[in-house]
Amino acid sequence: MKSSLRFACLLLLPLAGCGGPTPYEQGMAALNADDLPQAALHFQETLQSNPKDAGGWVGLGLVLYSQGKFVQAVDHHRQAIQLDPNRVEAYVGRAAACLQLREYDLAIADCNAALAIAPDTVAAYTTRGFAYSEKGAPRDAIASYSEAIQRGVTDGDVWMNRGNAYLDIKQYDEALKDYNEAIKLKPKNAGAFCNRGRIHTRQANWEQATKDYEAAIRIDRDLAYAYSGLAWVQSVSPNDKLRNGAQAVKLAGKACELSQWKDPYCIGVLAAAYAEIGHFPLAVQWQKKALDFEHSSFPPEELKKAQERLALFEMAKTYREQ
After folding, report:
1. Relative to the CA of 122, which of 34, 86, 160, 260 has its CA 20 to 30 Å away?
2. Is the pLDDT of residue 283 over 60?
3. Three-state DSSP state, 69
4. Cα(19)–Cα(260) distance, integer angstroms
5. Domain covering 222-322: architecture
6. CA atoms within 13 Å, Cβ hemisphere of 82
């Protein structure tokens, strides 16, 4: 979502006049430089001069968003919209804040309102795409991200997010194309490397999956799924040269720590890693823990596979992908 906020900031930043930058323009410059205290001061100065200046309210809303104060951000953007119903960036800013509050339908409605005023607003397409993804509507997300991409967006995160939506509907070839482009545009895109690794894993391209997970870890030492993905390869790959049970236990444990022991996938990987080194009681223990989560958070086919792995571990057998 930070990319959408940045787009909104660029929309807001006008050219400085002959007499030097106004407090509002100084506020936008400070915001784009991530100097939030200074930005807030300039926007407050703007509103002191004119309490009905919609731009000042939007600017403070963006500051509040950047501070994680999403409810207050929504209120400030609402005030801006009341003052100027055609203020596009106010709708986009409020949509971004609603998205963080998991108010997905409201976010989508605000993006649609922005696009009705200005159909080429890239930030509205990207924000709406993310809202659709979070709502569980990947095809709608793909359509929205595609609108942004057709308008020449060069933000690697947008391509990655569309790739994620393709991944959700198992269109792996399309997802791979988007992840490749995301990495081309942003070579240190850990998420794109990690998710490309997931596709290579599902396609049994174990060596390439290993390379992608390792690249993701080098870029972002706190990306849980990169550790769990690499641990999965080292635990269940049919390639003897790639398996390393002891290392997999360490990697999976790291993934569980990063996800605060609340992610069933990471915990299930830890179970497979313990099975790989022959510690089947621990494998059973952690697989049962993963299943406690999966009953409420995983689709039926994933639950069935997890139950099958538990049965193998209870028989003191390892699990191998084909």
Report:
1. 34
2. yes
3. coil
4. 54
5. Alpha Horseshoe (1.25)
6. 9
Is 90 exceeded by the pLDDT of residue 294? no
What is the Cα–Cα distance from 267 to 257, expressed in whole angstroms?
Answer: 10
Q: What is the mean pLDDT of the chain?
A: 92
Encoded tokens for 81:
């919209």
pLDDT attached to residue 20:
64
CATH architecture of the domain with range 154-205:
Alpha Horseshoe (1.25)
Phi, psi angles (nearest 5°) of residue 48:
-65, -35
First to last CA, the chain: 37
Q: What is the DSSP string of 221-285?
A: TT-HHHHHHHHHHHHH-S-TTT--HHHHHHHHHHHHHHTTT--HHHHHHHHHHHHHTT-HHHHHH
Contact call for residues 93 and 60 (beta carbons, < 8 A)? no
253: left (phi over 0), alpha (psi -120 to 50) or beta: alpha
Closest among 77, 80, 29, 72 to 53, alpha carbons compared: 80
pLDDT at 233 > cutoff 70: yes
- Residue ranges of the domains in the chain? 1-151, 154-205, 222-322
pLDDT at 8 over 50: no
What tokens were used for 254? Answer: 């790291």
**The two three-digit tokens of residue 165, written as one number:** 């939506």
- Amino acid 321 reads E
Per-residue model confidence (pLDDT) at position 2: 45
User: Given 3-state DSSP classes, what are the helix, strand and coil percentages for the chain, each rounded to the nearest 5?
Assistant: 75, 0, 25
Tokens of 289: 């823990």
